[in-house]
# Entry
Amino acid sequence: MLASRMLGERKSERQVLGYVPSLRREGPLTMQDLRRFEQDRYILQVRQDIIDEQQQNAQGLPSDKWKSIEVEAFQVNRTKKAVQKDSELEKPLTETENALKFGLFCMTLMYFRGLFLLKKQKTVWSVSAAKRSAEPPKSAERLRMDKEKRNAELRTRKAAFYDEKARIGQARKQKFHEQKLAAYRKRLVDENRK
# Structure
């Protein structure tokens, strides 16, 4: 008996309200403590139920929800195929697959052929093509003369531009020279008056 008291164990004098050191060290448990523990247990259970429900209703990535389905499908895929070799489904499925491939090829071919024909008809029916065909093609001599004419006009415009710049620069230089001369005259007049 004495050895058990050394280890912290003790027989309870009360059957219902025993001394439980891990729950209440001050003394034996009362009915109020038991009710409080019961209520705490109930609150924890309700919280756990809410957490479980939130985890079930949680919106996550689709891959999280589909992972179990995908894993199961891969396991089935490893063990057996959807269509066994030499089964009655193999031939119709192969024919269907080949027909689909050929259909996709034909649709792609028609798409690009349609684009080509559309571009071709666009150039045929455009107004600019009609204007070009109405004018006779220019000879090499006429093209050279037109180029020389454009170059001459360009040179004339450039010459006028640079002449204008030179005129502005000359006017600025003349104005500066006149201001300098006026300042020099004023200084001479001021010196002579003294």
